[in-house]
Amino acid sequence: MARDGLGVTPQSEDFAAWYNDVVFRAEMVERGPVRGSMVIRPYGYRIWELLQADLDGRIKATGHQNAYFPLLFPQSYMEREAEHVEGFAPELFTVTHAGGKELEEPLVIRPTSETIIGMMMAKWINSHRDLPLLLNQWANVLRWEMRPRMFLRTSEFLWQEGHTAHATADDAIAETMLALGIYNDVAVQIGAMGTVPGEKTPRERFAGAERTFTIEAMMRDGRALQAGTSHFMGTRFASAFGITYTGESGAAELCHTTSWGMSTRMIGGLIMTHGDDKGLVLPPAVAPYQVVIVPIGRAEAPLDAAAELAAGLQLAGIRAHVDDRPQLSPGFKFNDWEMRGVPIRLELGPRDLAAGTALMSRRLTYGQAEGGKEAIPLEAAPGLLTAELAAFQAMLARRAADFRDEHTAVVDTWPEFAAAVAVGWALALHCGGEACEDEIKALTTASPRCIPLAGEPEQGPCVRCGGPSAYGKRVIFGRAY
Ligand SMILES: [Zn+2]
Fold first, then answer.
1. Domain extents for the chain?
2. How far apart are the CA of 469 and the centre of ligand 1, in A?
């Protein structure tokens, strides 16, 4: 538990408690009345909106169109693709009654929408001229969660799911990689996260996919967070749902489909990538408030000047906010905004005003201009702060990438492996055997996160059992969320 009203449990003491303190105290979420459900409060939802707007722009810019499909569909849809239903069965919510009567066939609340969208694709695709079909949906999905954690694992969450159909496997693979690239750009450029794009090992694949690609991001406790996944389905869903097109020869051909998703889980990833013992640290690109101005003293002049400064910053495209809560001391406000992760704070008192300046503090420094408060001229504030915010965003991205690199070890022996996954990630050769994987998990709780796309071809003995390595490359192992 936190020690005083505003403080949070130090990360080094208990990372999970720190996380909980932060999400509730920063007023990002509230627990819902049903187990595993979450209310996203305005401060958390604004972060989602900013992420969503950016990702939506990228999805549209690459030729996809948004549509919306029903929340409910017949249970039999799930059953058409054997691996899909088997994978999702433990997490399904089904509706058995409606209008006070038992339904003839239970309805499923979507855990994902491959099946309902597959049904519609079968209807809409006739000839090769209908391809590719590039759809995206913004929606909520439900998956029963035994051990919920706010943003990371909740029974209901928000996401987008892209669903596309193509004439050839090559086109579908290219689409799968395009979506993965978009996710990596969002995570790195907007979320300032330290990621590794790669392919999932067979056991970690999406239920029904032929190949699953992922971006894995490193959190500040050394664990991995799967931050976005992109799946190549081959023709499995096309044959289950009859998604065919008439080829140029006149014969019916199966389409190749993909799906890809990024969710509100990203918010948890942002929190755990950047936060520190004082609370949240938000990248400016997703910060609800990028600059908070705290007027000092009870006189009217600083209040008026703060409002004027905020208006000027807003005109320059900066999300600026004046904290004019009269009943709270400046010191309380400083701590409050620090805990809520605002990148830059400005103080504006009578003395600053007389000098035509404001006192700027950064939420943290990492090779940025060190030191405490810095006086900045009011008239130059919009340009200066625009540059400061860009530098802050770049600094966070660099810090996260450095942290990922410093906590990733190339290992060839078991003791090295165990030491690496205790604090971060191990890049190791593995035999790909399930029993060997299970043994590693039992001993260290680490699992294969991905085969990095950037990895060089390599062969050798498995780090655990000494058997010949699979995959032709090193695999990242780590503990994961
Ligand atoms: Zn092995």
1. 15-274, 289-403, 408-478
2. 7
In this predicted model, what pLDDT tens digit does every residue of 17-33 receive, in sequence order? 999 999 999 999 999 99
Quote the pLDDT of residue 83. Answer: 87
Ligand 1 center to 210 CA (angstroms)? 23
Instruction: List the Cα angle 213/216/221 in 5-degree steps.
Output: 160
From the list 355, 349, 356, the residue with the least C-alpha distance to 300 is 349
Handedness of CA 177, 181, 186, 191 (dihedral sign): positive
Q: Does 15-274 match 408-478 in CATH topology?
A: no
Measured CA to CA in angstroms, residue 134 lies from 137, 160, 181, 227, 375 at distances of 11, 13, 16, 22, 51
CA of 444 to the centre of ligand 1 (A): 14
Task: Quote the mean pLDDT of the chain.
Answer: 95
CB crowding 352-368: b at 16 or more within 10 Å, else e: bbeeebbbbbbbbeeee
Tell me if 359 sits within 8 A of 347, measured CB to CB.
Answer: yes
Backbone torsions φ then ψ of 355, nearest 5 degrees = -85, -5
CA angle 240, 245, 250 (to 5 degrees): 130
Q: Say whether pLDDT at 1 is over 80.
A: no
User: Helices marked H in 208-363 — which ranges?
Assistant: 236-241, 265-274, 300-315, 330-339, 350-355
The Cβ of residue 423 has, within 10 Å, a number of other Cβ atoms equal to: 13
Question: What confidence score (pLDDT) does residue 5 get?
Answer: 56
Cis peptide leading into residue 461 (ω within 30°) = no
CA 3 to centroid of ligand 1, rounded, Å: 46
Q: What whole-number distance in Å separates Cα of residue 66 and Cα of residue 160? A: 10
| CATH 3.30.930.10 matches 15-274 | yes
C-alpha span between 61 and 178 (Å, rounded): 12
Tens-place pLDDT, residues 316-375 = 999 999 999 999 999 999 999 999 999 999 999 999 999 999 999 999 988 777 778 999
Query: Does the domain made of 289-403 have the CATH classification 3.40.50.720?
Result: no
Q: Which CATH class is domain 408-478?
A: alpha beta
pLDDT of residue 2: 42
Q: How far is the CA of 432 from the centre of ligand 1 (A)?
A: 6
CB 224 within 8 A of CB 235: no
